[in-house]
Structures are given as structure tokens and as C-alpha cells.
Design brief:
Distance between the termini: 47 Å
Helix content: 10-25%
Strand content: 25-35%
Radius of gyration: 23 Å
Bound molecules: alpha-L-arabinofuranose
Shape: globular
Oligomer: single chain
Number of strands: 31
Length: 572
């Protein structure tokens, strides 16, 4: 939890099959900020940016900033130069036993008046199915390092406390079987976080034996007696959480000794997971202020480079919240353009952090076998007045939608290394997809971004070159636009463009190389104000609407609304 004043971080499955191209797909838009910070540039001499493919040096040039909204921003999209696959796992979710993230948010119990299936709310399941959630990280967070799985199985659950998050009662009614049932209902894969902080390797090993074995061991008979004779599939295993802080305040060397033991003894016995589908192990990676985390990434990656047969890892986690000040003090609603621009500026730090830690990883793992897994990210604001401070309840506005799009684009541009990410957190906590209040449920602006991005799951990144222009507010300078493009498995081209400018609309002209484009349709997400939110009473304030666009002779045109996230599909 500590160390949120400076962002943190982290990515993979491909190494088991085909390792992504070692050619670097570079997004110069944000990288360039670190070379020539916008802030040092004159207002009118703005740079140009590109999202460039394969080994090309940054292509940039100085241009005059657009004088009015009538000026076009031109994009050049080369469909004939596909890049790496945007792993669907970057759209992962995180559900911790924290506030109403699990209890009420997912679990209401089979006797509830709220419509449910075996205790799991039907409305939430339906909403999440529409997002095609690839994986869910559970049970924490800090909670994971105090979680003892046996308390959450069988007919008699052990009632404990949740000291990390408000000291409230933890009834353990949502345990292993309920989590796996929930995943099954929404069609997502399991990402379990092991208790390295206060648990033992034996406890963790027995959890995996209980979950994954087919032979009739005592634990397997217990699993069957608890209703699940067939083994479960556990796709991802996190070995600890923030072990440098709430997970036990370990040094890199101490953590490494734990990592080796857990990696060796916590085995997945599911026969279906012994080959290509094998469970991937994710080590704790960086998070918090430098220089400590350079050392952390260096230590873990160096140890991995020299690892023996007896231990291995497939991913390195990274945590990075957009918080600006610690403790979190920015309001999640009722803020001005100043806070809007400050938060967006801060969220773009994700690019620098990923680049920095990827560069370290490249030294020890040039083939990019180890994924950087950004398994906690998102906005972290002051809690809403009147809520339990330990429950991390905040509103979710149009600003969060734009913030989500910017981060997803950064992950996509780093697709060769960032192969998984989990926004914090799925329901009722921090930058949530869904908010609930007893029987009521509302979908947030961030939810709609995830829905609009579904076509990018496992699509192939396509290079986009553009002059981002600048949106200025006071002394804060931000790119005016951001964009990514990708080709899906049916060959359809998808383009996402974010207009960060809260006041000016933007005319877009995109030239398609390698495609003429037969037709185009799209959706845009915007709202009257940067702090517009969806509420139980007014759930449709920030929802996607159709946007008018056309494609002719290989040129696609459209007008972006101010402060908007737009996704266009082009039939080729
Ligand atoms: O997401 C809230 C908390 O933030 C998590 O429990 C912890 O890992 C991080 O510090």
C-alpha cells in the first residue's frame, strides 16, 4: 500500500509457444515525453509523434500546434505491417476481499432476494460476460498475504477479520469453490495470489493439490465432497503480493529465497495443464519510489537469468496507481479541468515506468520470455465522504474512462513485453467497472471503455503514425490525441482514438496503407463534463453512442468530440 506516491509496475503465455518478435514496437508518443518533455517546449513548437513499428527510430518533427479545432490531425495506418498480438490478458480484472468488492459486489449468498446463481449476483455476471473478462486476480492484494484457504472451504466456514481493510469481519463464505464458480459463470481464467507473507509453502502446495489433482488423494476426496470432483484449471499463479511492503516488507534477496521455494514446491497437477496450457508463475516485481525498484527488478531478473531447473517464473508483476499525492487526496467527482489535466499527466507516467523496467528485463531476457504483468493499476482518489476509509470507495467519471484508454494503449504498444494487466479493482473499489448498492447496479464509464476495447483482445497491433498536437492547461501540456490500431482475426481493422482536450473537437483524417477500406462504423464515449458520472438514478450519462465516420479511397474521416474515447471498425 505504501509507496503509491510514485507509480509502480510490470508481463507473457507466448513464451510457451511462439515468443513475440524481438523487434521493438515503439510508441514514441509517450517515450518522447522523456526525451523532450512537453513542458520544456514552447507552446507553439509542438512535437510530433508516432506509434512506430519494428526497429524504426523515432520519427518525429517539429510542427506548429494546431490553432483551432478546425485543424485536422492526420494519422497514417499501415495495415500491411502487423506487430505483436495484443494479449487479451491485458484486459484482466482484480477482485480483492476489500470493502464491497467481493461481498455484495459479487457474493450475496444463495438466500438473497437479489437474483443470484449459487450466491453469485446474476446482474454482475451478465455485465462482466459482455466484457469477455480474460482473467481475475484473487483474493488480493494485501489481503492475499493473510489469506488461509482452508478457512474458505467446506460447510463450516471460519469467521476471521480483515485487518488490512477496515478490520471488518471476513466470513469466508466466498472461498475457493465460489471463486471458481464465479469464473465459470463469466468465462474467465483464474489468477490466484499465494500467501507468501504469513502462509507457508506447504499450505500453498496443498491448495494447488486440492485444486488441480485427479488422483484420489485425501485432499482430492475433500474437494469432491465439497462438490467438485473434477480438477480445476489454474492459469496463473502470483507468488506473493507487494512483498516489499504489505506482503512482508522483504528485501529483494529475502523475496528471491521465498520465490525459489514456492516456485519449486507449489505444483499444478491438472493433466490438462502439463503442456501448452501450463500454469504461469508470476513473481513480485517493482512498485513504489525509485531507486529501490530498479534494484528489485534487477535482482529478480538476474536471478532468473541464472536459474536452475528447480525453479522458474513466467512473469514479473508491476504495480502503478495514478494517485499524484499520497495519501490519495484528489476528488473522484466535482473536480475542475486542473485536476483533470493533472491526473492525466500523472497517468502517462505508466509509459516511462514500463519502458524503464522493460529495458532492465531486456538485459536479462532479450527473448522476452518473461512477461511484465501490470497486475494493479488505475486511479486512486480520496474516498467518498461517508464511506469506510478502509473500503476505498470512489466515483468513476469520464476522466477515468480517458485514463483507462490511455493506459490500455500504452500496454498495447508494449505488447511484446506487457502480456497481462489487471485494473484495480473490478467492483465497488477504486477504479471499478461496476458499482452496486444492495439490489442496484450501475456500469461506470471505465466499464464502457473495456466494452469498446473487446475487439482489441488478441488482435494484432498495427502501426499508427500521427502528430499528437498539444492540449495545454496552465503549465500542463498533454498530447491532444492518442491512438492505437489493430487487426482482428477476421481481418477487420480497429482504430481507437482518444481526444484528451476537454474543450476542442478534432477533425481526424486517417490514411490507410495496405487497405482501401470498404466501410467504417464507430462508437464514442463522452459526456457533458470531465467529471460526469453514471449513478443509480442516472445510469446513462456516460455511455457510448454511434459516431459518424466514412472511408473512401483509403482515407477515413471523422470528428472527435472533446474529451472522448472513440473506437472505429473498418471492413477491408
Ligand atoms: O488495491 C488496493 C491495494 O493496493 C492492494 O491490496 C495492494 O496490493 C496495493 O497496495
Amino acid at each position: 500500500m505504501a509507496g503509491k506516491s510514485v507509480p509502480i509496475y510490470h508481463c507473457w503465455r507466448r513464451q510457451l509457444s511462439a515468443i513475440g518478435s524481438s523487434e521493438a514496437l515503439s510508441c514514441s508518443l509517450f517515450s518522447l515525453r522523456f526525451i523532450v518533455p512537453f513542458i520544456n517546449l514552447s507552446r507553439r513548437a509542438l512535437l510530433v509523434i508516432c506509434v512506430f513499428p519494428f526497429n524504426l527510430a523515432l520519427t518525429g518533427m517539429a510542427q506548429t500546434a494546431p490553432a483551432s479545432d478546425a485543424d485536422k490531425i492526420r494519422l497514417s495506418i499501415d495495415v500491411s505491417k502487423p506487430g505483436p498480438k495484443i494479449d487479451r490478458n491485458i484486459f484482466g480484472q482484480f477482485a480483492e476481499h476489500l470493502g464491497h468488492g467481493v461481498y455484495e459486489g459479487i457474493w450475496v449468498g444463495p438466500d438473497s432476494n437479489i437474483p443470484n446463481t449459487r450466491g453469485i449476483r446474476n446482474d454482475v455476471v451478465a455485465a462482466l460476460k459482455a466484457l469477455k473478462v480474460p482473467n481475475i486476480r484473487w483474493p488480493g492484494g494485501c489481503f492475499a498475504d493473510e489469506y488461509h484457504w482452508r478457512k474458505g472451504i467446506g460447510p463450516q466456514r471460519v469467521v476471521t477479520l480483515n485487518p488490512n481493510w477496515g478490520g471488518v469481519i471476513e466470513p469466508n463464505t466466498f472461498g475457493t469453490h465460489e471463486f471458481m464458480d464465479f469464473l465459470d459463470q463469466i468465462g474467465a481464467e483464474a489468477y490466484l495470489s499465494l500467501n507468501v507473507g504469513s502462509g507457508t509453502p506447504q499450505e500453498a502446495a496443498e491448495w494447488l493439490e486440492y485444486l488441480t489433482t485427479t488422483q484420489p488423494t485425501t485432499l482430492v476426496k475433500e474437494r469432491a465432497a465439497n462438490g467438485h470432483p473434477a480438477p480445476y484449471k489454474i492459469a496463473y499463479l502470483g507468488i506473493g503480493n507487494e512483498s516489499w511492503d504489505c506482503g512482508g516488507n522483504m528485501t529483494p534477496d529475502y523475496y528471491l529465497s521465498q520465490l525459489k521455494i514456492y516456485s519449486r514446491f507449489v505444483r499444478n497437477f491438472n493433466p490438462a495443464q502439463q503442456g501448452q496450457q501450463q500454469m504461469l508463475k508470476i513473481a513480485v516485481g517493482p512498485g513504489g519510489p525509485e531507486p529501490r525498484f530498479i534494484e528489485w527488478t534487477e535482482s529478480v531478473m538476474k536471478a532468473w537469468q541464472n536459474h536452475q531447473w528447480s525453479w522458474d517464473m513466467n512473469g514479473l508483476s508491476m504495480h502503478n496507481y495514478t494517485v499524484v499525492r499520497w495519501p490519495p487526496s484528489f476528488a473522484s467527482v466535482g473536480f475542475s479541468e486542473t485536476e483533470y489535466s493533472q491526473i492525466l499527466k500523472s497517468t502517462l507516467d505508466m509509459e516511462g515506468l514500463i519502458s524503464k523496467h522493460s529495458a532492465i528485463m531486456d538485459q536479462y531476457d532479450p527473448q522476452k520470455k518473461i512477461a511484465l504483468v501490470v497486475d494493479e493499476w488505475g486511479s486512486w482518489y480520496a474516498q467518498l465522504p461517508g464511506t469506510n476509509p478502509g473500503f476505498l470507495v470512489q466515483q468513476n467519471s469520464l476522466r477515468d474512462a480517458i485514463l483507462a484508454a490511455l493506459n490500455l494503449n500504452i500496454f498495447a504498444r508494449h505488447a511484446d513485453r506487457v502480456r497481462m494487466a489487471n485494473i484495480a479493482q473490478m467492483i465497488n473499489v477504486l477504479q471499478a467497472m461496476i458499482m452496486t448498492d444492495k439490489e442496484k447496479m450501475v456500469l461506470t464509464p471505465t466499464y464502457y471503455v473495456y466494452k469498446m476495447y473487446v475487439p482489441f483482445q488478441d488482435a494484432t497491433l498495427v502501426p499508427v503514425v500521427f502528430n499528437a498536437g498539444a492540449y495545454m492547461h496552465g503549465d500542463i501540456s498533454l498530447p491532444r490525441v492518442d491512438a492505437i490500431a489493430a487487426k482482428d482475426t477476421t481481418g477487420k481493422l480497429w482504430l481507437e482514438i482518444t481526444n484528451l482536450d476537454p474543450k476542442q473537437s478534432i477533425e481526424i483524417e486517417a490514411t490507410l496503407a495496405g487497405s482501401t477500406g470498404k466501410s467504417a462504423v464507430g462508437q464514442t464515449l463522452t459526456a457533458p463534463k470531465v467529471d460526469s458520472v453514471n449513478t443509480f438514478e442516472a445510469p446513462n450519462t456516460v455511455v457510448p453512442n454511434r459516431v459518424s465516420t466514412s472511408v473512401q479511397g483509403g482515407k477515413l474521416t471523422l470528428k472527435l468530440e472533446p474529451k472522448s474515447v472513440t473506437v472505429i471498425s473498418v471492413e477491408q
